[in-house]
Amino acid sequence: MKIAIVCYPTFGGSGVVATELGIALADHGHEVHFITYKQPVRLQLLHSHVHYHEVTVPNYPLFHYQPYELALSSKLVDMVKLHGIDLLHVHYAIPHAYAGYMAKKMLEEEGIFIPMVTTLHGTDITLVGNHPFYKPAVTFSINNSDVVTSVSESLKEDTLRLFDIKKEIYVVPNFIDLAKYDNPYTACQRDLIAHKNEKIITHISNLRKVKRIDNVIEIFSRILEKMPARLIIVGEGPEKKPSKKLCKELGVYDNVSFVGNSHEVDKILCFSDLFLLPSEHESFGLVALEAMACGVPVISSNAGGLSEVNIQGISGYLSNIGDVNEMAENALKILESPEVHAEFRKNARKAATKFETKNIVPLYEEVYNKALKSISGRI
Ligand code: GMT
Q1: How confident is the model at residue 183 (pLDDT cuts 50, 70, 90)?
Q2: CA of 87 to the centre of ligand 1 (A)
Q3: Is 123 close to ligand 1, i.e. is its CB under 6 Å away?
Q4: 120 alpha carbon – ligand 1 mean position (Å)
Q5: What's the average model confidence in pLDDT over 248-263?
Q6: Which ligand 1 atom lies nearest to the CA of residue 208?
Q7: 228 CA to middle of ligand 1, Å?
Q8: Mean pLDDT score, 97-126
Q9: What is the pTM of this model?
Q10: CATH number for domain 178-355, candidates 3.40.50.720, 1.25.40.10, 3.40.50.2000, 2.70.170.10
Q11: Which is deepest, 86, 112, 158, 217, by most CB within 10 Å?
């Protein structure tokens, strides 16, 4: 199959999932065309079945906002015709499903019928897409996709609750290539970042309010009261400055490393002892799964789809949003006993196997076949 994947090329989970999916599909023999405004961060082009086409938006001074959707839909039309693409898979409803729909319609005028699969990732539904300024367009794009998928049961429920959806939504969870995270723990160079006796606590996100970085720092400061520890905060975003301020106020600044965006998430997780994700919303929590794949227990909130990934008392613990006391207690429960810690490490890794690439990618292939079937009468 020739598949066009549209995604955000940045460090966000939706772009990571789309990229990993494209690579896995190419490994299955499909021809994959990434169409976006920048090369996705995790995409290496050394694969004969993977292609990347850049969308450029000419900068015209008359426009206050440059029309990316227009450029994207035109690019999709051109690429479908040039490469004989069979199917569009758009990740993130805004504006990708909207642009994909326009491309479909333009192609139909020329007698080319191509199905569109839309994957909902979370923020396109729970945060941005639900805004009255976007809601009609998001509802329209979902209802006019040939097949719609969401990354968790929780996100499916949210979508059905918040929008007037007439389509069936198929849940296809995010996935992980466990072999990539197969670093033997002992080989990890933890002394690069922490002193020998310090526990390494990690948080990775785009440092937005929804991630509750203040809670991350509060939990960490309670851990630090009981044992030597270092907090590693990976990522860039608007909460970085206020977070540094909070670290100073709580007197933990010297024990926290803000390392910015990283291409070496697997290496950082390899030497982490515990992962914190106390988010306000989280449709899935791909980064929690990445931590678990490295055998790192997760202390998280119970927001959204997190309970579908992090298993209470097995791979870590979940608490109500904002309950930093309980989160800190649970963190200490794991860290204070080497035996308990080892058990959680082992179980976290085991729980991650449910989401192995080989279990999930065939579900997307099924979805593609469904989408192709849905338009077969029109071809
Ligand atoms: O978490 C973010 O802010 C980034 C966002 C994105 O759109 O990339 O992540 C969403 O999609 C990820 C991949 O499916 C999920 O793992 C994240 O849970 C989801 N984020 C939220 O729901 C807040």
Answers
A1: low
A2: 24
A3: yes
A4: 10
A5: 96
A6: 3
A7: 32
A8: 95
A9: 0.94
A10: 3.40.50.2000
A11: 217
